[in-house]
Write a structure and sequence with these properties.
The complex is a heterodimer of chains A (514) and B (97).
Chain A lengths: L11 H23 L4 H6 L6 H12 L2 H14 L1 H11 L1 H16 L5 H4 L5 H35 L3 H48 L5 H12 L13 H15 L3 H5 L7 H32 L2 H7 L6 H50 L6 H25 L6 H24 L5 H21 L1 H5 L15 H18 L3 H16 L5
Helix pairs in contact in A: 1-9, 1-15, 3-9, 3-13, 4-5, 4-13, 4-15, 5-13, 6-11, 6-13, 6-21, 8-9, 8-15, 8-16, 8-17, 8-18, 9-13, 9-15, 9-16, 10-13, 11-17, 11-20, 13-15, 15-16, 17-18, 17-20, 18-20
Chain B lengths: L1 H5 L1 H34 L1 H4 L2 E3 L2 E2 L1 H40 L1
Antiparallel strand pairs in B: 1-2
Classes of the chains: A mainly alpha (514), B mainly alpha (97).
Chain lengths: 514, 97
Amino acid sequence: MEMQTTLGQPNVVSILFFFLFTLTTLYITYLAAKRTKTASEYYAAGRSITGFQNGLALAGDYMSAASFLGIAGLVALKGYDGLIYSIGFLVGWPIVMFLIAEQLRNLGKYTFADVVAYRLKQKPIRIASSFGSLATVLLYLIAQMVGAGSLIKLLFGLPYDLAVVLVGTIMIIYVLFGGMIATTWVQIIKACLLLGGATLLAILTLVKFGFSFNELFGFINEKYGEKRLLPGGLVANPWDAISLGIALMFGTAGLPHILMRFYTVPDAKEARKSVFYATGFIGYFYILTFIIGFGAAAIVGENLIKSIEKGGNMAAPLLAEAVGGTIFLGFIAAVAFATILAVVAGLTLAGAGALSHDLYTNVIKKGRATEEEQVKVARLATLILGILAIFLGIAFKGQNVAFMVGLAFAIAASANFPSLILSIFWKKISTSGVVAGILTGVTLSVVLIILSPTVWVDIFKNPAPIFPWKNPALISMPASFIMAILVSLLTPEKEAQEKFEEEKVRTYLGVGIE
Amino acid sequence: MKEVLSSPKFQTLISQKNKVAFGLTFIQMLIYYGFIYFLAFKKDFLAIKITGSIPLGIPLGISVIIFSWLLTGVYTLWANSVYDRLVEEIKRKIEKH
């Protein structure tokens, strides 16, 4: 007999958890708002977050509902390929630590453009960098909002538009009033709930198999055949896999909302510690989703998972119901909701940073804006972006937005990452070089994604793609580096080269950090 | 400031840090792209059963996650002890001047 589910019907427990979470986080926002007066408090929580707290918050920013529900679903329906995907999302973190985190903390203030613009000409760099930031943030935000609308519809039975407006409104309240302090604590609470919920779900699953992986995988073997436990279609073309791997690995090191978090800790040492904790939490979480996905395939069964939603997104909630009843389903559904809220809050704050700190304060006001004015403009930017996110979420309703996260990572890897690395490590980088690199990275990413199977075939319904790989990073990232290097060599900037030595004192010793 | 910049101690600090950072980056890339190489070309190897029903691919994949995390631990240990001490020494020298 097939299992029955109450998923998608209003569930008293999930509504209760939802109200508890929302009230707690709004109270935190209220407390945070009282402590948020300066720009440093608004963007960087007054640099008061510890390495451990920031590690949790980074994990909260990165573990989206897409990675919880989506990867568990991918494992449930495709097996091993889901693990390959989550590994890709993890391996960028050590790169963030080795090459970016400390340098960013030592050289910058609120956004990653601070680092890129350190020895170069403010205006062109700020405009180009915020172009890269905003493109990344907006694409990621659209994907999250559209995902939020459809997930909440499935989880709670709320209409799509109402779900998008609800998520957008609560998120705007967090960021608008509580700035980075509230956003950080929302991330920390969400990360604890998600890690705790996923741990419990994995344990309850393993109980059914006497805590024996051999038994769990043996069951999968019998039910679905041993192909489930082996790599399948995801790595059909090795070049495609490497290109996706480059986008995930180096894209992580170029995500504005992740980079911004390194300014919330007091110094480079705490920045470094926070990546260690974050990588541990995220890695642990992906191992859990692997168990949860296989657990769902074994206990719930792929037929029921597919009948609720063909992408498999409901595998984890269905498993929760199967092993823990309606109460646990309610809890997991509320956790998924908290996850969505926290991620969009982090994205909106990063986007607002690019608009207000990079464009308004440093381009329009040429760095001469009072604290009060900076906070006011940051709040205005938050409001604009939040409303835009709601509007875009509704506009893209029912559209295939799967390519958008891939594109966001491709742009982050091909525009933001090269400009950061070259400005930190290469003496001869020039303003025109950075601008050329960013433009090359963004343009190539967008054009190649349009010509790729994900858009050209899946969305435009053409029979064959013009560009063969699903992700362009293997072309667009090296192209961006080469362009930036060539143009820098052709337009040497004496002043920037002279400042490189002085910059080193700050990069390596942290002397004079903000 | 000029003195710090040209001091051999500061130069060693920079080259040591870059060696560790880029060295570990290289190891991390080797681990990940090595894994993709197995996925693409050595599927049979990943299918070898280690116990009853578990193929080698599963512990191998999980180890990529664990090793990546351990590498961040190695770096943190090195930086917290060796690197930070050198930084403190050089900073103290600057303050004396």
